[in-house]
Structures are given as C-alpha cells and as structure tokens.
Amino acid sequence: MTATSIRRPVASTPVRASVDAPAGACSHLSPADLRPTTIRTVTSPCNERLRETLLSLNESPADFAGKLGVDPKTVERWIGNANRHPHPRTAYLAARLLDVDVTYLWPSIHGNRTSKISGSDELTACWPGRAAVPHDLWPRLLTEAQRRITIMGDFGLPDLIPNLPRLLADKTARRIQVRIIITDPHTATNPIDTARALAAEATYLPLTDHGVNVARYPGNLATTILWVDDDLIVRTGIDGCPAAFAPIIHLRALPNGPLSRLYLTSLDTITETAIPAASTTLRAVA
C-alpha cells in the first residue's frame, strides 16, 4: 500500500447554531436537529406599513401588482417579509401610487447611503400646554387629512373641532383610515378620568356604525397622540401636573426619525392591546 492510498478520517466540525438564534440558545445543535427531516426556519417580520396602507385604500395585492406590472406573489412577498425590498425604481413607483414616502414603506431601501435623522429634523413646534396651541391647527389637520387619522387618548378634540363626529364619519366614507383609541371607563383610576372616558365613549362609539375603528384600552394612557398623515402631535403626562399644562410637541413623522419611531412604537403597542368596540347596532341586537 502506497502512502498516497492512505486516507485519514476527516475530523467532524461542530455545527454551530445560526447567527439568528436568540440569546441564550445552545451553541450546538442536538443530534435530532441534524436529521434531514428537521428544518429550522426563521420567521421574518411582515411589512405592516405596506399591509395597512393597502387596506386603508381597499387595494388588494393582486390589483396593486397589476398597477406595478409585477406578479401578485411578488407583492405578497413584500408584505410577508419586511426585509425584502423591491428594486428602487419599483419601490418609488409603489410609493407614488400609494401616496406615501418610499422610506415609510421600506425604511432601509437606500441602505447606508441615507443620512442619519436627528430629533431636530422632526420637531416642528412645541407649546407649554394645549391652550398655547394655535386654535386653527386642530381643525386644519383633520380637514386636510388624505390618508389617516389616528387619535389615542383625550386631547379634548370635541371641544376644539366643531362637528368632529361628522368630520370623522365623512373621512371614513372617503376611504381614509380613521382609528380611535379611548380609555376604558372601568379601568380609570379616579373620578375625573372616569368622567373623561365616559364622555369620549359618548362621542366616539356611535362612529363604529360609520366604519370608524374604535377601541378601548384597558389601562391608563399616559401619552396622548394625534397622527394625521405626516403630522404627529403628542402630549406626555408629567407627574403632579394637570394634563392641560403638559407640553405638546408637533412632529413631522419621519420613518427613520428617533422621536417618531418612539411614539409610533408606543402607538403600535397600545393598538395591539386595545379591545375593538362593537358597533351600536350590534350592541342593540345583542
């Protein structure tokens, strides 16, 4: 036997866990994981912004794909995987058709070429309490809304905007997404908050018959948010300070803005926990 005919056994290399494995996971796969029938898949987050934008416009993935000139399954992949980006030219066309900024649908579409956004880029104005806010700002924002109106908490808007319920119902009839989150009166911690929650219910619950999405949050809403298209108005409660004197911040809602991301993440969390309210018609039948 010649030296060249001798083959040494190759030492097996330990199989390491995927880099996507959660912190604290075992660094080696078990023997069962090596079987061909065992396949581990990593679930990618879906593109909620694209999905909600299509829903607000009553646009199906198939119809939208037809306008873009792509396969319907391609649009479904974009929705199902937030990490999947279309070609930039297609992405800009999609954003133009949906009347949104391309970075709203795909924040990392430009990779590392985009400049970093600071909080000062988002800040439009700041007022020391609701009384200092220009009176025409509230009705102007809601009247000019084209894509969305989201109200979370109690800004006292019924006192600031004449015929607010009718305005919101008309916006919904025009296929503008209107969402309202109010505090559940049963979870209010004091008589004043209970009275405000009951007043909010009296104003907003009848709007469910007009297609407005109204939900109750089973807890205290320390932050109040009004999100209208690209305008974001927020008020964060301060301990020992009445809500009327808490500062109000007006932001330009930028997809990569640190302040916008903070408040919109809070809004998403509250939305997931809030309990949708049934329409008054359904409650009457029940």
UniProtKB/TrEMBL annotation:
Residues 50-105 form the HTH cro/C1-type domain. InterPro entries: Cro/C1-type_HTH, Lambda_DNA-bd_dom_sf. One of its GO terms (molecular function) is DNA binding. Transmembrane segments: none annotated. Gene3D superfamilies: lambda repressor-like DNA-binding domains. SMART domains: HTH_XRE (SM00530). This is HTH cro/C1-type domain-containing protein. It comes from Micromonospora kangleipakensis.
